[in-house]
Design goal:
Structural class: alpha+beta
Number of strands: 4
Largest sheet: 4 strands, mixed
Number of helices: 8
Strand content: 5-15%
Oligomer: single chain
Order of helices and strands: HHHHEEEEHHHH
Shape: globular
Strand order of the largest sheet: 1-2-4-3
Radius of gyration: 25 Å
Distance between the termini: 34 Å
């Protein structure tokens, strides 16, 4: 397990440093989005693949040197196991404690994640709206301010739900999130963060993925908007007034 954590952390760090110092400065935002997700998954998957080099076909082991080295390796491993036999109960106790803490944290994070997911899904199913924007559903929330989106729905404050008060730029921002299915990226990173909650590099990946989503959406609105300055002021206002912005 320690070997896996070290290898996956090294890969994550290497890929993220490449992104942070090189790719982040580039304008290929969609490529950066794919890079972050793919390298995140690859970094966690590759170290989990076991390559057992000891299970070689008999035809390959024709050199006496290979056979002798293999036997010596087994002998050394057996001697080491005997020497550490006294500490085995303590070691097993420590491992059991670590496993218990790990699964308790995973259980807590899983319950919180799936509860939030269930709440969002329930809102989409139970609060069907006849109002739409660019083919996506519009649902009002009880929050005093804020706009966010998930799956095929844009959630907007009931204070701004009156048709003539809806802000077209903010709706376009959320439209791009839905159009490019950014929620899938968020689901992936959230699930990986649950499984690898002890790895801080996952948090850097999460922050960069969300940052990439926001830049993509802002660029899309900037191309459509007649007043970029006004839009920027609106984004700042929503960032200040909304404690947690969801997608």
């Amino acid at each position: 397990m320690i070997d896996y954590v070290l290898k996956s952390t090294i890969l994550l760090l290497a890929f993220y440093m490449l992104y942070s110092f090189v790719l982040r400065k580039e304008s290929a935002l969609n490529f950066n989005r794919a890079y972050l997700i793919v390298t995140l998954v690859v970094s966690l998957a590759i170290p989990a693949i076991s390559f057992d080099l000891l299970q070689l076909p008999d035809s390959i082991i024709t050199d006496n040197t290979i056979l002798i080295n293999y036997q010596n390796s087994n002998l050394a491993h057996a001697q080491k196991s005997v020497g550490e036999g006294i500490a085995t109960p303590v070691f097993l106790s420590a491992v059991h404690g670590i496993n218990t803490v790990y699964f308790l944290v995973v259980s807590f994070l899983s319950i919180r994640f799936f509860t939030n997911l269930f709440v969002l899904a329930s809102r989409i199913i139970n609060k069907r709206s006849e109002q739409k924007f660019a083919g996506f559903n519009l649902i009002q929330t009880e929050q005093p301010v804020g706009v966010y989106s998930f799956y095929n729905t844009i959630f907007i404050s009931q204070n701004e739900f009156v048709k003539d008060k809806l802000d077209i730029d903010l709706l376009r921002h959320e439209q791009l999130h839905l159009k490019q299915k950014h929620f899938i990226d968020i689901l992936i990173i959230e699930l990986l963060q649950i499984a690898f909650w002890f790895n801080p590099i996952i948090l850097f990946y999460k922050k960069s993925i969300k940052e990439n989503h926001e830049i993509l959406a802002d660029r899309y609105v900037a191309q459509k908007s007649n007043n970029i300055t006004a839009y920027a002021e609106k984004i700042i206002a929503y960032t200040v007034l909304t404690p947690v912005k969801q997608e």
